[in-house]
């Protein structure tokens, strides 16, 4: 900014004006002006940001598109607020938000050597209930126990739904629109299976917020965990579990540490349970990437969906024509992994180097030495 100030003085005043020094400029800017730099508290919407940078002509061409985008966001936020209010008033109805936290790492400390070495990735799937007392749950696993795709997300959701009290008959679940994790046929199959297999559940709805405007109550859990992590070192996966447990003092988070045996094959379940997934009952092609609401009912072989919150539902007959009802014998769940997953040999060597350097305490060396590894080029911490 000071350099721009010098250029401006030269352009406007030539040699007739002597610019002030950098120290004087700094003092005036900080003490005589009520100015500051705005730091966004959350990610900004790329569509809205792109529109703000357009010329007036471009804005006019894209105005309708932006208005549609903002209208969809308003519909989603209104629906979330309505469900939150309903959950506060009706004990048989529950509304939650869920999301996967940014990747956590083991080991993690302030030692400078940590910055230059590859570390073990850990994942935290969070579920936050919108009604008081705002119970919240963390599902924690490492990259040798699972990935972060639809198998893992679907398994966590089924675990949560199975733990609900018998008084809960309906539930709405809000999330972002990540196709590999939340908005896909595999997770839809899990929810269809859940509503049919869990006796007290009558209705499950999965709802998606507008892309770029996906801040949810469960994001507060991520902030609380990051705050609790400050000034602490993490040398094993269970240490993250301890941090989760103290991140909220009043009504602490329920923490569930998972291993590879806790994840089942959602794709295999989808192949057995959802025979038809591409055409609705009117013969129209279903665009899963545009769906905003999915509706599942007990004793129904239909998945209902809509592209806008204000639209009427369309229906997919998941059994197809001439097939038995989905309400008959449900398929058995199969494990997704038969053993722990491998990390790259290069990553393991980095972890062992951290142990050898002494920045990782000796009592944790055995854990890192026994991590499964292979010479593959990529780690197992990617989405499916």
Quick rundown:
The protein is of the alpha/beta class and 384 residues long. The chain folds into two domains: 63 residues, no CATH class; 239 residues, no CATH class.
Summarize the structure in words.
The chain has helices spanning 2-13, 22-31, 46-52, 56-61, 63-89, 150-162, 185-197, 219-229, 237-246, 266-273, 345-357, 365-369, and strands at 93-100, 104-106, 120-129, 136-142, 170-175, 203-208, 254-257, 293-297, 302-306, 314-317, 343-344, 373-374. With 384 residues, it is α/β, with parallel strands linked by helices. It folds into two domains: 2-64, no CATH class; 79-317, no CATH class. Helix 6 (150-162) runs parallel beside helix 7 (185-197). The mean pLDDT is 90.
Features:
384 residues, alpha/beta, ten-stranded mixed beta sheet, two-stranded parallel ribbon, 12 strands
Q: Can you tell me the overall shape?
A: globular
Give the termini distance in whole angstroms: 45 Å
Annotation, overall tally of beta strands: 12
In percent, how helical is the residue content?
25-40%
CA-based gyration radius:
26 Å
Averaged pLDDT: 90
Domains (count): 2
Beta fraction: 15-25%
Q: Uncertain spans, ≥5 residues at pLDDT below 50?
A: none
Order of helices and strands: HHHHHEEEEHEHEHHEHEEEEHHE
Number of helices: 12
The largest sheet, given as strand count, sense and whether it forms a barrel, is: 10 strands, mixed
Q: Which class do the helix and strand fractions yield?
A: alpha/beta
